[in-house]
Amino acid sequence: MPRRPAAPAGHGSAMEAPDDLDQCPLMPTYGPPQVRFVRGEGSRLWDADGKEYLDLLSGLAVTSLGHSHPAVADALDAQARTLVHVSNLFGSGPGWEVAVTLDRLLGAGGQVFFANSGAEANECAIKLARKWGGRGRHVVVSAFGSFHGRTLATLHATGQPAKHEAFQPLPEGFRHVAWNDLDALEASIDPTVAAVLLEPVQGEGGVMPATVEYFAGVRRLCDERGLLFMVDEVQTGLGRTGKWFGHQHFGVVPDVVTMAKALGNGVPIGACWARADVAGVFEPGDHATTFGGQPLATAAARAVLTVMEDEDVPRRATEAGAALTAGLEGLPGVTGVRGLGLLLAAQLVDGIDARAVAAEALNRGLVVNAVTPTAIRLAPSLLVSPAEIAEAITVLAAAMGDVTSTVTPDAGQVLLVEDTA
Ligand SMILES: Cc1ncc(COP(=O)(O)O)c(C=O)c1O
Hints:
421 residues; alpha/beta; 7-stranded mixed β-sheet; 4-stranded mixed β-sheet; 13 helices; 17 strands; binds pyridoxal-5'-phosphate
């Protein structure tokens, strides 16, 4: 078995002595963890040594209601004691209600397919586009910088060629164009194109929002050329950006919308929604998944959506997002803040390494991530409090201070930040 790189000091847990890493049973698709979390509540996490952390990343925009939300825990408990799973050959559970709620939040009459992840939700969208387009009209155009998943098809839809290298040949039928560039999109359209697939904010691509003009233009172009406009809301959906769905900032109605992450607040579930006449091209046998829409996952999703509506999470994301943006903008090491609602990236002054800042923040008990080498991503719980935001800003200031004070300033490029800790 290949040796796994040694974990940094402090990562050990009760179940794992450092030597065990040599015989790690997990494939090395992630680097060694800096910390092992064992418990979570609201915006707080605890590691195996009992150290407390403030989580402003939410498992990459997943735990939008915070960790271990009691309503979701209760729903899981009750459903686990009632019915966990039956085949999709039979009707069951709360999936029907979840689909009705999602359709209402999307504001247009459509139908839902339940999957188990974001990539699978996008696979459904891609297959739908191919069936809808018909033979010879199957190409999906997406944007450079996008991220749509790691299955072979969604990897090819992902507009990051470096990620494709090792996995050629990828499934045929994907094309990439410059982000936020309507002319480039128009130039890419030929009779083989069936659909356009875009994120409202490119999350993994660095938290890069679409412009209103771009999304409006894409909708117009799709109408003119008879293409599906498919929007990947896996990271942006369900209140995170300050609207129920990110595309609602841009005044467009897509034909297909995919989502996952926040829908189960950590319980694996994804969904692909499509306008009814588009969804209607699927026939029994065209698409399926054993676990999709099963009672346990949809019970979690039903509880999540109920809390989200009760708490009016889009409003909360708007208000908390404004406070977090203001706090970040006030940090001397930050040159700008981009994003929507509570999906934000703080661009750092040239010369400050975002990975070093994220690592130092973690040391200090704050969870964020370096979405690019020069930007920190923040995606807190949508129920994050003003006090938690203030605390995060204080820790980030200290972490940046620590990092910048260890960097040799390059002719004034690096702004020294006072260490406030
Ligand atoms: C926009 C977007 N689409 C798709 C995915 C893939 O989702 P999953 O990891 O659940 O397959 C992600 C994951 O980060 C994402 O951000």
